[in-house]
Each structure stands twice: as structure tokens, then as C-alpha cells.
Specification:
Layout (H helix, E strand, L loop, with lengths): L3 E4 L4 E5 L5 H18 L4 H17 L1 H12 L3 H25 L7 H6 L2 E10 L2 E5 L7 H12 L3 E5 L5 H13 L7 E3 L7 H6 L3 E7 L2 H14 L3 E4 L4 E5 L7 H13 L9 E7 H16 L19 H16 L3 E4 L16 E4 L6 H4 L6 E7 L2 H9 L3 E2 L3 E3 L3 H10 L6 E2 L14 E2 L2 E2 L4 H6 L2 E9 L1
Parallel strand pairs: 4-5, 4-7, 5-6, 7-8, 9-10, 9-15, 10-13, 12-13, 15-16
Antiparallel strand pairs: 1-2, 3-19, 8-18, 11-12, 14-17
């Protein structure tokens, strides 16, 4: 795939970039390694001040970078602005909380004495250069949610971004340095996927993190495993959105949330709700309202403030989504709305918001992630069936459950196989809460204290008597 900005609303190639050669890669890896040796010794207060300055600079440049993101991958301009604001918020959160999250831990006195020590403690020390392989769908947020904690912990970073968001990648490569971070703390590598393995195998690179497809995760994990280097993987998701009868009194709110949860980022989000599992007592009422609301969404130019859903990021992405829908329809699913390209649009990679009912396990969409504005709805008879359908997926990123029954909440909290269970609301990442999944959604956690410790050397310091 060429490294290029291609406007998904028009299909026009706006700008192309030459990938870094071997000399350019070596220069940046060496710089990251050199910088780590000195940056690791800086104190938390200095790092916090640098992160806060970066947040301030990002706030000032929010409109420009939002337009760049919209141009490159098609998210609506409103959502791009919100993404930039969220990134600044995360930077400030880690600036305020990083030192506390990495404070020395002191074992109980009895355990210290039992070990024969005079004194003992646990300290979190940075690992070194961390390679981040990041996707296009949240081109700023996915990077910052790694970079902010990694830099606050004293690591340095190398970014291999998706090839269709090179201008956003270059912006990130300069942002931290312009805000005051030493040169080499965070750098962008404009390289294709074929060059990633050699960078990861470089002995100066200590660890890796990837957000992306299952295939990309397998590739990174296999190389890192061979090199015995730690990784964090956040892969695909096909999150369930369960609606139980006790939520009948707030069905309109549940429907509105369901629409947002499905079409956020034009439906191209790992944590978007994709499978809507509805109890038979409220199935008809929910599904009818949901389909009407999805059909009413405005599909159009993502630069226009009135647009609800922009284009898919790539032509191949739309083709993949169409294949899933066509397979389901051919096997007996019913389209309650959508299931087609919008009429009158001859350019750009648009697809209408779609709701499919009557989905069965034989259909590909039952197992595969639909990365676009396509929802599947399932009718279930009781709580046991809801849990069974929700867990009948190779993924386990997050989940959403609408119920006011506390016993049901306890059951879902105990039995759903997911990295998060969100009751009466929509899954959303926040810097204070750990984020990640189970099964084929990956392993490890980003954000919160878990995220900042992910790339630290957890060191036991033991002092004899």
C-alpha cells in the first residue's frame, strides 16, 4: 500500500510520500536510543510539564489537525475535533497522575522481615525505545493513548502509523518536539508494513504496542515473541449491545445510544457496538425505532457540519463490508434499512447505515467484524440466551448492557467475556480506566495505571541487614 493521503470522500490522491530508507530508519532508531539514556533520568515534574505543554499546543492547533484527519480518513469534522480534545485531556491526566501511578511500592513490614531484608521496595523504571504500530481509524487518539503514558514513564517512542494517514503521522512526529520534548523522544517512521519486522528485531527497541487487525497482531506478536520482547495488542471487536425488559422505560435513550455506538467514526471503531441482542419482550419496539433512526442519518461530506456519517476510509474497506452484507442477505438475513451505496454518489467510499435482522451462525457477519455502519440484531428469549449470543464471538473487547435489574447486572458482570461491561451507556475509553480485551481482541491494557506500567521494568530493590 503506498504511503499517501487519499481523500475517501472523493477518491482523489492528495499527496504521496516516499518511505524512509534504511539510513533514515537507522538514524531515527539511534536517536531514540541515545535520547532514552538521558531522558530516562528526568524527573516526573519535568515530564509532566512537557506533557502539559504538548496538550496546550494541541489545543491551539485543534482545528487544523481535525481537518487533516477528516481529509485523510473521512471521519466527520465534529468527531475529529472531539478526538483532538480527548488527546489533550489524556495528556493532562497523565501529567497530573503519572508520578502517583509509578510511585515506589513498599511491601508489608512482616514480609520484608521474613525475606531477611533490612528494607525492600518495588520501583517502576522505563524499558527504553517502544515501537508503536497504529491504525488509521482514530489516527490521533490511538497514538496519544500510548505516547502520553509511555513518555511520562520515561520511555521514548517510534511511530509506524497507517499508510493512509501520513500527514497526521508527521504532525505527531513533530508535535512533542515542538512542545519541548528532547529531539528523539517521539519520532515518526514513514515506512511500509514490510519494514516493521526489522525495526522490531533491532536490539535497541525494547517493546512494541499495536492497535489494528488480528492479522497484524499475530505478525507483531510472533516477531516479538521470537525476540522475547513485551507487547500490548488491541485488536478487533464485535461488541454486543444487550437490551433487557427492565430498560423498557428508557427505550428511546437506549436507541439513541445504540445509534451513536454503532455509527461513531462512520462505524469504523473496534469498540463500536455491532451486535444488538434484544430480549423478545422489547425486540419489536427497539428494532423498529433503531432501524428508523439509522435510516434517518445524514450520509455526506465529512467536512460539512450537518453530516452524521462520512465515507469508509478506503475503497477496499467498503468492498469488505459489502461482502459481509451480501453474504448475510444471500443466506436469508433481512435488511431493515440500508444495505446499499447511497444513491446519487458516484465518487467516494460511502455506504448507507444498515440494520440486518435474522442473522444466523452460518453467515460470515455473525463471526467477522463489520467495520462500517452495519448493525446486526438478534432476538433472545431470556438472560441465559443473551449471554450465550453475546459470548458467541471470537472477540471480547467490550460490551454494553441495558438493564435496571441489579441481579441481571451481577450476572452480566460475571459472565460476559469482555474487557469491559458498560451498563446503561456506551463503551468509551477514558484515561482513568484500563482499556483492552480478551480472546482475539488482544491482550494487555492501555490507559490508567495498567497502561503506564505496561512498558516499565518492575524492579525489586532488596537491601540486606
Amino acid at each position: 500500500m503506498p504511503i499517501a493521503t487519499v481523500n475517501p470522500a472523493t477518491g482523489e490522491t492528495v499527496r504521496t510520500f516516499e518511505p524512509l530508507g534504511a539510513d533514515g530508519i537507522e538514524e531515527r532508531v539511534a536517536r531514540a536510543d541515545r535520547t532514552f539514556r538521558s531522558y530516562r533520568a528526568t524527573d516526573f515534574a519535568s515530564r509532566a510539564a512537557l506533557l502539559a505543554s504538548t496538550a496546550d499546543l494541541l489545543d491551539k492547533e485543534r482545528e487544523d489537525i481535525a481537518r487533516t484527519m477528516t481529509l485523510e480518513m473521512g471521519k466527520t469534522l465534529a468527531s475529529a475535533r472531539a478526538e483532538a480534545a480527548k488527546c489533550a485531556k489524556a495528556m493532562r491526566w497523565y501529567a497530573a497522575n503519572g508520578e502517583r501511578l509509578l510511585a515506589d511500592e513498599h511491601p508489608a513490614d512482616a514480609d520484608v522481615q521474613d525475606s531477611g531484608a533490612h528494607r525492600a521496595l518495588v520501583r517502576y523504571r522505563p524499558l527504553g525505545v517502544v515501537l508503536a504500530v497504529m491504525p488509521w481509524n482514530f489516527p490521533l487518539w490511538q497514538v496519544v493513548r500510548f505516547a502520553a503514558p509511555a513518555l511520562m514513564a520515561g520511555n521514548t517512542g517510534l511511530l509506524k502509523h497507517a499508510s493512509n494517514v501520513p500527514q497526521t503521522a508527521l504532525y505527531l512526529g513533530g508535535l512533542f518536539h515542538r512542545a519541548g520534548f528532547p529531539e528523539g523522544c517521539f519520532q515518526t517512521l514513514l515506512i511500509g508494513s514490510g519494514a516493521v519486522e526489522s525495526v522490531l528485531r533491532d536490539p535497541r527497541v525494547a517493546a512494541a504496542t499495536l492497535t489494528g487487525s488480528e492479522g497484524a497482531g499475530r505478525s507483531i506478536a510472533s516477531v516479538a515473541g521470537d525476540e522475547i520482547k513485551p507487547t500490548v495488542l488491541e485488536l478487533g471487536g464485535s461488541d454486543p449491545f444487550v437490551v433487557m425488559p427492565s430498560a423498557a422505560g428508557e427505550l428511546d435513550h437506549a436507541v439513541a445510544t445504540a445509534v451513536t455506538a454503532r455509527v461513531q467514526n462512520n462505524g469504523q471503531s473496534c469498540i463500536a457496538a455491532k451486535r444488538f441482542i434484544v430480549h423478545e419482550d422489547v425486540y419489536d419496539a427497539f428494532t423498529q425505532r433503531f432501524a428508523r433512526a439509522m435510516e434517518a442519518l445524514v450520509v455526506g461530506d465529512p467536512m460539512e457540519e450537518s453530516t452524521d456519517v462520512g465515507p469508509l476510509s478506503t475503497e477496499q474497506g467498503r468492498a469488505d463490508l459489502e461482502e459481509l452484507v451480501d453474504d448475510a442477505l444471500a443466506r436469508g438475513a433481512q435488511a431493515l434499512c440500508g444495505a446499499r451505496r447511497p444513491e446519487g454518489r458516484t465518487a467516494g467510499w460511502f455506504y448507507t447505515p444498515t440494520v440486518l435482522a435474522g442473522v444466523t451462525p452460518e453467515m460470515r457477519i455473525h463471526r467477522e467484524e463489520a467495520f462500517g455502519p452495519v448493525a446486526t440484531v438478534y432476538r433472545v428469549r431470556d438472560l441465559d440466551a443473551a449471554v450465550e449470543v453475546a459470548n458467541d464471538s471470537p472477540f471480547g473487547l467490550s460490551s454494553n448492557v441495558w438493564t435496571r435489574d441489579e441481579d441481571e447486572q451481577r450476572r452480566f458482570a460475571a459472565d460476559l467475556a469482555a474487557g469491559g461491561v458498560y451498563f446503561n451507556g456506551m463503551t468509551a475509553s477514558h484515561p482513568a480506566f484500563p482499556f483492552g480485551g480478551v480472546k482475539r481482541s488482544g491482550y494487555g491494557r492501555e490507559l490508567s495505571g495498567h497502561g503506564i506500567r505496561a512498558f516499565c521494568n518492575v524492579t525489586t530493590l532488596w537491601y540486606g541487614r
